[in-house]
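Each field is set out as follows.
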Amino acid sequence: MRKTKERRERVAALRADYRSELAEGLERFFEPRRTVCPWCASDRLRRRLRSTDHLQQKPGVFVLDQCCSCGHVFQNPRLNAQGLEFYYRDCYDGLGHATMARLASTPLANRLYRTRARAMLPHGSPALWLDVGTGHGHFCAVARRIHPHTEFHGLDRGEGVLRAGREGRIARAYRGSFTELSQRLAGRYDAVSMYHYLEHTPAPRRELAAAHRTLRVGGHLLIEAPDPQSLSARLLGRWWGPWLQPQHLHLPPLANLCEELGEQGFTVVSVDRREPHVPTDLTSAAANLLKAALPPDDLPWRPRRPGPLSRWLRRAMLLQTAPNLVVLFALDLLLAPLIRRTRLSNAYRVIARRN
């Protein structure tokens, strides 16, 4: 009850600032619409989908286009720096910190962290490992058990990376832009990981160049990303969780990424479309649908707190649908071994060695 009251007070305190920002309109958060693909410069574009912000339910409509030449999927028009700040705020830090911390420490998350760490085992034992987009450093804390002789550092734009350093999940914390900080970190690391990070960045090629700059010769870059060619993406449409609008700006197909790594001075040594699958497709799609159907929650970007009737209806619908979400989650886990062997798998992993 106390936590509920504290949250309600925090929401009320934030509401005035959000109201004044939204009064200026959403158009200022977007760059001009592109007429050519940002990956291959082809003008053969088609609309892949339109989506809203399913995760936070902040206002706005977001469009993903797909290049008919190379298959690259990208947000168009894309959020600018001001828009990214607005839509990330109170998601991983601030108001959303407690929720994200719980999700990052679940048994499923820990299993994913372990498989990511073990993927490096055939390629040696790195002395220094930089996890880019580390969030609150939970991957590093788990990976340290599998690589006990490795020192893990973390880099992120959010304040969570500093908390990860204070709480001992990483040995060193860097807060800021990877492309800018890579100048300071040149040639320092034996391994650099980007787990579900690259799709969040405005310029993926620059991030790959930063990784090349940061790695020692012979060091390894580990990337996991959503697979836009997944059959699940087609079947579930805009409700597919990994679209994650408006945060995901670029979703390159696996072949595009491997080709670019070669151009950047890497040799791809491992590709995997099975193990990186995150078994939550049915659950996340159902949750996205449910959020769209529910009465509004008390969120600071809404003009006012919902009334008593709206809050009662929301609680009643959540209680009624919760068992169905539990069943879908169990089904996701049960089907995962089979899904991983098919094109329904929703993610891929690439490991590349710096030449």
